[in-house]
Design a protein that fits this description.
By secondary structure, this protein is an alpha+beta fold. It has one helix spanning 103-124; strands at 3-10, 18-26, 30-40, 43-47, 50-52, 54-56, 63-65, 94-96. Among the domains are: 1-49 and 97-126, Arylsulfatase, C-terminal domain (2-Layer Sandwich); 51-93, no CATH class. It is 10% helix and 21% strand.
């Protein structure tokens, strides 16, 4: 990995320990911003880009940084000793976003950044000094010109609808012949009168004699 460019933006407040913000470009392809140059007891050193560590409110679940005394969401009071401590017993309040993972890479980045910082400090003492712009405006490609819309052919005019012949008038239905009248039924001959039955002779009152 080769560091191909370092840009330094000096901080105007001279009383601050923070002296500059830097961006580092690697292999002309990858850039890391918000690298800080800080003045320490032993000289200047480089701090990698970081973010404040946060936790969640036990009441509403809202996110708050570890030094917050009240929840940003619900206003509940937060305890002051929520941050974890490192091996030296110091509270860990920030976490690096990007950082070197070995000492050799850290020394190489720090050497390049501190060298660029000192050069920028020398330039700032000259008359007509202009701070370095950290971000160049990105040139957007012009959108390709759109082809003119193709005129569509007008649809052919539709032929007039063909008039349908009116249906012939239906002939009136013929009158049906009335059915012939049925002849009246012939009168049936009455049955002959039955002769009255002859009267039976009454039996004699005499009792027949019993022969012994």
């Amino acid at each position: 990995m080769k560091i191909t460019e370092v840009r330094v933006n000096l901080v105007s407040n001279k009383n601050s320990r923070l002296k500059a913000f830097c961006s580092v470009t690697m292999d002309n392809e990858f850039v890391v911003r918000d690298i800080k140059v800080i003045e320490g007891a032993g000289g200047h050193f480089v701090a990698m880009p970081s973010r404040k560590m946060t936790d969640h409110c036990g009441k509403c679940g809202g996110k708050n940084h570890l030094r917050a005394k009240f929840c940003n969401n619900c206003g509940a009071s937060l305890s002051g000793n929520r941050a974890r401590k490192d091996v030296k017993g110091r509270m860990k309040l920030h976490a690096d976003i990007a950082h070197p993972i070995n000492l050799e890479c850290r020394k190489r980045i720090q050497g390049k950044v501190i060298s660029a910082f000192k050069e920028e400090m020398e330039k700032s003492r000259q008359s007509g000094y202009k701070p370095v712009e950290m971000e160049e405006p990105v040139k957007m490609d012009k959108p390709a010109e759109m082809d003119e819309p193709v005129e569509m052919d007008k649809p052919d005019e539709m032929d007039e609808p063909v008039k349908m012949d009116e249906p012939d008038e239906m002939d009136e239905p013929d009158e049906m012949d009335k059915p012939d009248e049925m002849d009246e039924p012939d009168e049936m001959d009455k049955p002959d009168e039955m002769d009255e039955p002859d009267e039976m002779d009454e039996p004699d009152d005499e009792v027949p004699e019993i022969i012994s």
